Amino acid sequence: MMKFLSCDWGTSSFRLRIVNLTDASIEGEYVNEAGIQATYHKFVESGNEEHRVKFYFDQLKKEIKQMSINLHVNLDGMLIVCSGMASSSIGIMELPYADLPIDVKGNSVGLEYFPISDDFDHSLLLVSGLRSSDNVMRGEETQLIGVVRQLENFSGEGVFILPGTHSKHIKVKGYKVSNFKTYMTGEVFQLMAYQSILSKSVKMDARPNEKFQEIFKVGVEEGASSALLSVLFKVRTNELFGRYTKEENFHYLSGLLIGNELSNLVEEKDSRIYLCSEGKLHLNYAIGMEILGLHAEVLPKEWVRKSVIHGQIQILNQNINNEKNIFLGSF
Fold first, then answer.
1. In contact, 218 and 255? CB cutoff 8 Å
2. I want to staple 282 with a disulfide (CB 3.0 to 4.6 A). Which of 40, 133, 225, 277 is the partner?
3. E strands, 48-123, where?
């Protein structure tokens, strides 16, 4: 088995990749917005609750067929490794979270294996999430395993920062996840910028601009040193008093929230911190960490982009090589 289908099925997005198991190269990619949330709504509307797995597999079949047509490739019978929200309460099957601590080598995550059947011409390995006493994640554990797989000189200790709608700060000690925290930075930004009273005082402008960056830095410093619920209202008064334009305020608000999140890392100043980010958040978090004196190793965007793939390969290899592997001789 030299290739598999990597499926990253998030709440609002769906991604399939043809991956070479040997070198983790991507030989084809298919992305759309058919996330788990939308698929779950279709499932509920179908009223076919007794055949949940079949319903989701039927949706997968449609996506795989479309990918096959788009890329002119034959994907029949190819193994799928699926992580993200597919193992949640609104996914293919709800799997229990793995309990802390888990190792970062991929051999203690929760898994469910579905062999090829008459209804679905693919075997599928479903990856579950991770829980602490007061927190949960689904998807980020696979990213973490994939990031560590790409760190040649990893000492087994560090704090990994995964920015996003719900940012994760994951602490690893002795090659095991010992704890993690969730910060709702991205979601709060969306609420404040587009649905709150502050929405009248901000306007998105993502063009490169030195002044925007300087204002973002001001926001980081104030968000890190002030009571967030109080300083947030300055977004409103900034515009009312003519201090910042709406476009400048957009970056000030972003700085406030990111600065407040990163201020919680001050106690980890002596730890090795890894920033695992891609896209538009990459620069903002790197700047925020620099301002706050957090000496992070900023990982290459390509590493982060391929972290799910590397994580899935690591999990797959651990289980194939285990003499009690879950595939039961399927290959």
1. yes
2. 277
3. 80-84, 98-99, 102-103, 111-114
